Amino acid sequence: MLRVRQRHGCAMAQKVREVTTSHLSSYISDVNSDAWDWVCDPFAPAVTANGLTGVASTQANPDIAAFKLELLTSLRTDIAAIFKKELQDTLGDVLSAIKLDLQAVKTQLANDKAATDATMSKLNGMVEEMEHALTECSDDITEMKTTIKSLTANVAKLENKCEDLESRSRRNNARIVGVPEGPDTCTTAAVAALLKEAFGLAKEPLLDHSHRTLQPKPKPGERLRAIVCGFHYHSDCVDILRRARELRQIKVRDLTISVFPDHTAKVARAWAAFNEVRWQLCDIDGARYGLIHPARLRITYNGVEKDFVSAEASDYVKTLISM
Fold first, then answer.
1. Positive or negative CA dihedral for 55, 61, 64, 69?
2. Domains parsed from the chain with CATH numbers
3. pTM, rounded to two decimals
4. What is the DSSP letter of 178?
5. Residues 6+ apart with CB under 8 A from 280
6. Which of 125, 229, 258, 312 is deepest in the core (most CB within 10 A)?
7. Interval 202-216: pLDDT, tens
8. Rounded to whole angstroms, what are the CA distances from 152 to 147, 149, 155, 254, 266?
């Protein structure tokens, strides 16, 4: 816009100079040289044809002074009118162009403002919708956290109950390790006869079931699968496990077998965590220990009993060794 104004201003000044010069030249050319000289310098002494000064001539002919004054006044009036007209014509075009430019800028600004207002209104609506959605999500998350916390507690209870039920279902079971694979080596009759011979029982124990662990059949040279047998009477299971703890490794039929309780995987891992402590306790005189279901190690030393469910038992055993 500033550049447009500068261009219009320069053009206007140039045009005014050209028009003024042309009009003055055409107007003044009609005036005699004496009058023009007087207009250019009215106070200079005029020299007439007879060589007298302008004062003498003026005194001689007073009508010339009046004519010059009238001519000067008329010339000034005409010049002012011409200059005013040309300025009005030139400035009128420039001002019209400036007005058009300003109107275009104003229209563009109005359109931009309307578009900006529409965009802001749309954004405000979107922000309100998002705030509402986020509020609902926050409420849902809070409710979900409460529900998840409750469900987690319920699942933990269910896991403990399932673990307890599985352990109770295995309380009459025993695992026999070291029996070679064969077609008739894991039947109830074969296992009952093996137990009677191994532990010197008066009669064969009554078994409800007997089978290999649920693993693929091992290849030659691989670890043998254990036999899981279920006793009909809990007293028979307790007696067999007690004898197995006393004998540890049982020799029978050129075989070396071991009998262990049939624990769940969770209980078995918990019991295995105490293996190192149990080996250390075997070397301490006067120390006795026992594993209590599900996974609690009870140590008795000098008549003092202590129960452990974690690695704290190792620290306690170290104090016993250092004594």
1. positive
2. 2-119 (no CATH), 172-262 (3.30.70.1820), 264-323 (3.30.250.20)
3. 0.54
4. -
5. 314, 317, 321
6. 229
7. 999 999 999 999 889
8. 8, 5, 5, 52, 19
